[in-house]
Specification:
Blueprint: H1 2-5, H2 12-21, E1 33-39, E2 43-48, H3 51-56, E3 65-67, E4 73-74, E5 77-79, E6 87-90, E7 93-99, E8 102-108, E9 115-121, E10 127-136, E11 143-154, E12 157-159, E13 161-167, E14 171-176, E15 185-190, E16 199-201, E17 203-211, E18 214-221, E19 228-234, E20 240-252, E21 255-269, E22 277-279, E23 281-286, E24 292-298, E25 309-314, E26 318-323, E27 327-333, H4 349-354, E28 358-360, E29 366-367, E30 396-401, E31 406-411, H5 414-419, E32 428-431, E33 434-435, E34 439-441, E35 446-450, E36 452-455, E37 464-470, E38 480-484, E39 490-501, E40 507-519, E41 528-532, E42 541-547, E43 558-564, E44 567-572, E45 578-582, H6 598-602, E46 607-611, E47 615-616, H7 623-629, H8 633-653
Parallel strand pairs: 2-28, 31-46
Antiparallel strand pairs: 1-27, 1-29, 2-26, 3-4, 3-27, 5-26, 6-15, 7-8, 8-14, 9-13, 9-15, 10-11, 10-14, 11-12, 16-25, 17-18, 18-24, 19-23, 19-25, 20-21, 20-24, 21-22, 21-23, 30-45, 30-46, 30-47, 31-44, 32-33, 32-45, 34-44, 35-43, 36-37, 37-42, 38-41, 38-43, 39-40, 39-42
């Protein structure tokens, strides 16, 4: 006891111990899990929480409980240390000048404290430069902090901040090498204190998929409910820049979607002969409710980035409590019905944090013997079948194939996307005449198709270049069109359109996208131009044109079209007899009770399903089979057979004529 009285000043420990042991009794068997640990001597204990504890506990950790050697509850305090917030100040003076082709920026900080970074401002849309950083206290003698610091804005990301290493400086001089970039101001980030060390979280990449301009990594976390801080990549690529976004799945209005929870720019660059500089981590500020993170690496026109691994780190969280005696203690977790405790120990929070104390790690997660949760309404199971469906109004269908029962993920192919409605309300999963409930998932991803391009010159407009673009299916919903060229200097206006036959037989041109495209020989100028489509094409043929004026005709190196990714997520206990029906202009959107358990379905492990060959019945399935017989040989043959059978039957039933006498 005397040993602990020293750090807890003014006899705070006896009061804390009294508060810690004066709690209401609890029923340990209402908690699903327990973890044992040993306290060597009385005093303040700092309990480190492993991934398994976060995973078993509630997201807010409100069900954590500590039991002492006597089995009684001990008051605890959740300690979430955070670094003091840094403060951003504008530079009090900002000067720029040109020196031997370089831009020299001199700024006055007006601050006496330690500086974490300086951030520049510029309206320039696209650049990559290296900077030398110097500091001074009198503007006479300068000390080089670093040379070759990359500054850039490109590919949808930017890096305009320069670390200062928590130094003090009244003056900062930045020499930005290369073609002039118009910097218009600067802000200073003043250090507020030492950074808090984040802790690792177990994570692994379980899947990698390549989409149009995007790599999707599915990451499995060792523990849910841990407050994530950063995600860092391992890559052998020597030089690269990529924008990264991190998302989680969620359900909005009965439809699966994604919510961004972090992101940033990762890079490894070497500018003007300086050693390579890298930043390979992005910030997160999210407590996941599932084990899954969706990491999207936006590649732009570059090839997919090689990723050999990643690391996830979380904000530190510890349990503090004053142990009244040494011995075996237990940490309880896994009680979704437990109310958040309200301990008077919070009044001693400052004393507990400053007291230090032994750092203890709990043992492995173990099931609670005799576990008996409070009575609650059980979560309904994921329904396997829905209402019967008459397929008469559906004109297209495809078989659905998968290898094993369970939760399936079916991505619509280009043919199915082209045949379904824009609102997707006509999609139905069927087996033996019954609907199979599903969740609709529309992530912010796209598939890319290389289009067949053929010149289609118009003799009446010799200065206009026209190309004919062929889609694989009429009516395919396209998000964007990407044009590529090897020409390095040009400026053109482009128009994408289709030709539609009106009711009166005349042809009408409907514009789907338009806009300028220019390119210069400056390094980094992109060889592609992306056009966002304003409508859904009706036909399989599109037309692209541009007026060259008095310039040589522009040569296209390739054309890509991107269509959205649409998935159906469903659960089944069978593997055969499934089909996807679509192509009904009058059907209402389905409403399944599946939305009640959407989270459980979306976070389950999925198996990929695929679509087979398309069947088309212009009259609709169900009616079409009978109507195919109408007027045909089979129909008349069947009808004749029925007539003959009826005549024979009637003849047998008629009374025989009386024999003449």
């Amino acid at each position: 006891m005397k040993r602990l009285l020293r750090p807890l000043r003014n006899a705070a420990l006896p009061a804390a111990l009294a508060v810690a042991t004066a709690t209401a009794a609890l029923v340990p068997t209402e908690w699903r899990y327990q973890q044992s640990f040993t306290v060597e001597e009385p005093g303040v204990v700092r309990l480190a929480l492993p991934d398994a504890t976060f995973d078993a506990a509630r997201p807010d950790l409100a069900d954590l409980r500590v039991l002492g050697p006597d089995g009684r509850e001990t008051a605890l305090l959740l300690d979430r240390p955070t670094a003091p917030s840094a403060v951003l100040y504008p530079a009090t003076a900002f000067e720029t000048r040109l020196l031997d082709g370089d831009t020299v920026i001199t700024l006055a900080t007006g601050l006496a404290g330690h500086l974490a970074a300086v951030t520049l401002a510029t309206p320039h849309p696209y650049f990559l430069r290296a900077a030398k950083v110097e500091i001074s206290s009198d503007r006479q003698e300068w000390t080089v902090v670093e040379d070759g610091v990359p500054l850039f804005r490109q590919w949808g990301g930017e890096k305009l901040d320069i670390p200062l290493g928590h130094r003090t400086a009244r003056w900062i001089r930045l020499t930005v090498r290369g073609t002039t970039v118009p910097f218009t101001g600067a802000s200073l980030l003043q250090s507020a204190g030492p950074a808090v060390e984040n802790l690792p979280v177990g994570a692994r990449i379980t899947a990698r998929e390549e989409f149009a301009d995007t790599t999707l990594l599915t990451v499995d976390l060792a523990g849910r409910h841990a407050p994530l801080a950063t995600l860092e990549f391992d890559t052998p690529e020597p030089v690269f820049m990529r924008r990264v976004t991190v998302a989680v799945r969620e359900v909005r209005d009965g439809e699966s979607g994604e919510r961004l929870v972090g992101g940033g720019m990762i890079y490894r660059v070497a500018v003007d002969g300086a050693p390579p500089r890298a930043r390979l981590d992005v910030r997160l500020n999210h407590t996941p409710e599932t084990h899954e993170l969706l990491v999207q690496i936006h590649n732009g026109d570059s090839p997919p980035l090689s990723v050999t691994g990643l690391r996830v780190r979380r904000h530190p969280v510890r349990v503090l409590f004053p142990a009244a005696s040494a011995g075996s203690h237990r940490l309880l977790t896994g009680n979704p019905q437990a109310e958040a405790p309200r301990y008077d120990l919070a009044a001693f929070a400052g004393d507990l944090r400053s007291a230090g104390g032994a750092l203890v790690s709990p043992g492995p997660l173990e099931p609670m013997p005799g576990y008996q949760p409070r009575a609650e309404t059980p979560l309904p199971d994921v329904p396997l079948t829905g209402a019967p469906l008459d397929p008469s109004g559906w004109t297209r269908r495809k078989p659905v194939q998968f290898a094993s029962p369970g939760v399936q993920e079916l991505e619509l192919d280009a043919a199915a996307l082209a045949g379904t409605r824009s609102d997707l309300a006509d999609l139905r999963l069927l087996r033996a005449g019954q609907q199979i409930p599903y969740l609709l998932e529309r992530p912010a991803l796209a598939r890319s198709l290389a289009l067949t391009v053929a010149p289609a010159p118009d003799p009446q407009r010799p200065t206009v270049s026209i190309w004919r673009l062929e889609l694989p299916h009429a009516g395919l919903p396209l998000r964007r069109l990407t044009l590529a060229t090897e020409t390095t200097l040009f400026q053109r206006e482009f128009r994408l359109y289709e030709k539609v036959t009106r009711d009166d037989g005349r042809t009408q041109e409907i514009t789907l996208a338009s806009g300028p495209w220019h390119r210069t020989p400056e390094p980094g100028s992109r060889p592609t131009r992306v056009f966002e489509l304003t409508g859904r094409p009706r036909n399989a043929t599109l037309w692209l044109e541009t007026d060259n004026g008095d310039n040589p005709a522009l040569v296209l190196a390739g054309v890509k079209a991107d269509h959205p990714v649409v998935r159906l997520v469903f659960r089944t206990d069978a593997t055969d007899g499934f089909s996807l029906a679509y192509g009904n202009p009058r059907s209402a959107a389905p409403r399944y009770d599946l939305s009640l358990v959407a989270r459980a379905l979306l976070t389950a492990t999925r198996s990929p399903a695929r679509l087979g060959a398309e069947e088309v019945a212009a009259e609709g399935f169900g009616r079409g089979v009978l109507r195919q017989l109408q007027g045909g040989v089979a129909f008349w043959g069947a009808l004749a057979l029925v007539v003959v059978v009826l005549l024979v039957t009637v003849a047998r039933l008629l009374p025989k004529p009386a024999e003449p006498k």
